[in-house]
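Structural biology now treats backbone shape like a language. To illustrate, our science desk offers a sequence and the tokens encoding its fold:
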Amino acid sequence: MDIVLFGIQGSGKGTLSKIIAEKYGFVIFETGSELRKLSSEDTELARKVKSIVESGKLVPNEIVMDIIENFMHHLPNGKAVLFDGIPRKMEQAETFDALMERNGRKFTGILINVPESTALRRLTTRRLCENCKTVYPADYTKDNCEKCGGKLVTRSDDNPESIKTRIAAFNEETMPVIEKYKKENLMVTMNGDQPIDTAAKEILEVVAKILS
């Protein structure tokens, strides 16, 4: 059983996905990471993706699906996938569902629910490592990453205006996908508006029920 994580930016999705993966052995699929990985390869798909990215265009949905299919074909046998942040739109959900069915894979979505005010506070106070991109909350007071020693910086787009635009896009584009999966009994909701240790405990319990 694969898992698809949903949540507005600032919901803790990235942090919780790593906790789930470590506990249950999921392999994380995150589009940005896969695009960066492909940029170092010399395959037909990698060359196609590099051409699109270098032209400044958005990677179209059919190529994103090719990337997912390529990712799944290289999975170790029996490994489950945790999809982080995809599908984002209804069109993508339809092709994603077809791809999963074609590959004989079942999935359940988990919505990490947080109020917009919480997301705004978290995003405007967080910092990330400029080397390994690890994200640190406001209560982390050191100036360097504890993993690689890199400098911690604030993202240029972590300002209230940009964040509100991203949240509005989530509500407009991704919420219909979430509602679709709810109607199909493929969605579980958890409370993300709590300390990370408490949220981690809850989401691990949710995943345990899904897998049982």
About this structure: Helices lie at 13-24, 31-38, 44-54, 61-73, 90-102, 116-125, 160-183, 196-211.
